[in-house]
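Quick one: structure for this chain?
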Amino acid sequence: MSSVAAAVPAAILARAEAAYLGLALGDALGATVEFMTPREIACQFGVHREMVGGGWLKLRRGQVTDDTTMSLALGEAILGNRGRVEPLACARAFDGWMRGKPPDIGNTVRRNLVLFRRTACPEAPPSEHDAGNGAAMRVLPVALATFGWPEAEVRAACRAQAHVTHNNEVSDAACEFLAVAVQDFLRGDPLRRILRRRIGPLLSVYPQFSFRKRVRCANPSGWVVETMQAVLQALLDNGGFEDCVVDVVNRGGDADTTGAIAGMLCGALYGREALPARWLKVLDPAVREACIVQARKLLVRDGK
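Got it. Here's what it folds into:
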């Protein structure tokens, strides 16, 4: 594992906090309209842009779902291993999270964590059917913990956590893209430069991720390809944090996850000052504090 200096510039720390808070904000906003169609959202809300809770999970106002809580569980596992992204520790953390009876859990996550309980093997078997977005939604702690590492090691760490539940090359590609893009944004790289640097290589190997040759990706499913298409369209079509997150969650479908991923990217890109104060005020206080504390701990570590 590579080491990183403990002294992290304040601007990078602030962007890391914004990425983690952005993930939670997008999750909480999107959860209200998860599994709804755009037409249903428009009929009920007009444009859904306020945290009101409810949804199919009947959440409290500002409550988050598995996107945020699995990320926090993963982050604690990484911190407990002094910055290492170790598959067995990740599997144990996810298993502990599931034993806590979260209000929501994806089918692929549940199936492969049950398999881990039976076999003690922290890597799910490869499957062409496991290209869901469950590994991508929780990749942020890896991006923060590996900030400053060689890119090959960042990508390997992404796969280490992902393969606990999603051992699939398309899922891997999404996780790795998101992690390196977050790191680029933490450094202050502009959006257009990242798009040129990162999206071209992604599409050259996985053209199914193409998002500009499609019509607007509405009602995206849990398939990570549709998740990425919706998020990238919203990221490019909007110029700020709130507009991007509101755009993507109003597409419906797996809105908590598209909201979480868009919020993660936009938080790293636009920074802490771009987060809507009214959303932060409503966000579950314990989650808000956990995101801030964990973001800092994952970046400022001894690297041993």
